[in-house]
Amino acid sequence: MTHGRRGETMNRTTSLCQWMLVVVALAMGCSDTINQPTYPVQGEVRLDGKPFKGVTVVFRPVDKTNFKRQEIPQGITDENGKYSIHTYSSKDGAPAGDYKVGLAFMQPLDDEGGDQVKREAGQPIFPPKYADPETSGLKATVDKKASTIPTFELTK
User: Fold this and answer.
1) Cα 131 to Cα 2: distance, rounded to the nearest angstrom
2) Whole domain around residue 79: which residue ranges?
3) pLDDT tens by residue, the chain, 156 residues
4) What domain count does the chain have?
5) Residues in CB range of 75: below 8 A, 6 or more apart
6) Residues 146, 69: one domain?
7) Based on the number of CB atoms within 10 Å of its own CB, is 53 exposed (0-12), middle (13-18) or buried (19 or more)?
């Protein structure tokens, strides 16, 4: 009789382990579903008619309902003032929706590690009024397809 109960107990344990593996596998398989679908987004930043390199472009969603992980789509302008937005991985784009946009130029510190800001000769200072998405007055809409945002034409 002891042998029969042992077999029963092993069968129950095996079944329980199998169910636990299924639950864990399902949970792992669903872990990516928290990411929203993204769509390629590109655009351009110009200051007084000229492209501006090194500007961080931040998209703050107007409706944050679907942003469970508080994602912040963003990108950085290249030497031509052009940027591509990423949310979860490089150049993946942004979820569809309306955004308030903030632009900021983060200047590197000097080469000696001090707290002095280093600027390339002749590079204009970027206006801080565009930094806060809530007050910059800049907006963007990302459609459920590849989007090119109209150029942000800024003035000092």
Assistant:
1) 75
2) 41-154
3) 555 565 555 555 545 445 444 444 444 444 456 899 999 999 999 999 999 999 999 999 999 988 888 899 999 999 999 999 999 999 899 999 999 999 998 765 555 655 554 555 555 678 899 999 999 999 999 999 999 999 999 998
4) 2
5) 41, 56, 57, 83, 84, 85, 86
6) yes
7) middle
